[in-house]
Amino acid sequence: MVIRMPSIKSLCVFCGSSAGKNPQMAEMAGRLGTLMAKHGISLVYGGGNVGLMGRVAEGVLQNGGHVTGVIPEHLLKMEVGHTGLSELVVVDTMHTRKARMFELADAFAVLPGGLGTLDETFEILTWKQLGLHAKPVVLVDEFGFWDPLIAMIDSMIASGFVAPRHRDLFVLARRVEEVIPLAEAMGVPSAVNRADLF
Q1: What residues contact 133, with CB distance under 8 A and at least 6 apart?
Q2: What count of other Cβ atoms lies within 10 Å of the Cβ of residue 134?
Q3: Is the pLDDT reported for residue 186 higher than 60?
Q4: What is the C-alpha to C-alpha distance for residues 136 and 182, in angstroms, rounded to an integer?
C-alpha cells in the first residue's frame, strides 16, 4: 500500500491529560498517533506523558514518527512531562504554550478533554474567527463526546451571538480515520506571522 505524502506536515492535537472513563477513547488517541506516523505527519501537543495526551504521543513514537511537546515549566510535574519525545519545549506560561503550538502546527485536531482542552480549542477558533489564521480545525466526535458542545454552538447561532458562517470554523470527524483527509480537504494556508496574533 502506497501512502501519498501529505500537504499537512504537522498536526497539533488538543486532548485531555486524563484518560477519562471510557477505555475506547484512549485506544482512539493511540490510533490517531499511529495514523499520523504512517502518513508522515508530526505531532505537536501539550508535552504530557499521561491521559489521552500520552496515548497520542506513544502512538506516533511507537511507529517511528516525530513528536514535539510544548509544556509550561509549572506543569512538568503536574502533567508528568514526557521525557521520550523527539523534542520537548519548556515555556514560561500557558499563553506562550498555545502561541508556540500554533506556530508549529499546520492544522488542529481536538479529542475529548476537559477545561484545558476547551480553552485551547476556543482560543484557536476565536483567532480563526477574527481572521488571524485559516488553519484546519477538526473535532473528533467518534463517541458523541462533542455533541453537547455542537448543540451549544448551534444555540449561540440561533440566539444571534455567533454568525452562521462561523459554524464552518471547524469540521466534525465521526471517526479518527477521517481526521487527516478532512484536515487536508480544508487546505493548508500560507504561514501567519506570530506577531499578527497579538
Answers
A1: 102, 124, 127, 189, 192, 197
A2: 13
A3: yes
A4: 8
The three grid cell numbers given for residue 167, joined into one nine-digit string: 459554524
Give the type of residue at 150.
I
Domain boundaries, the chain: 10-189
CATH class, domain 10-189, is alpha beta
Cα-Cα-Cα-Cα dihedral of 6, 117, 26, 142, to 10°? -70
Confidence of residue 189 (pLDDT cuts 50, 70, 90): low
- Specify the DSSP element, H or E, that contains 119: helix 115-129
| Alpha carbons 182 and 54: distance in angstroms, whole number | 24
Check if the beta carbon of residue 89 is closer than 8 Å to that of residue 71.
yes
pLDDT in tens, 111-135: 999 999 999 999 999 999 999 999 9
Average model confidence (pLDDT) across the chain: 90
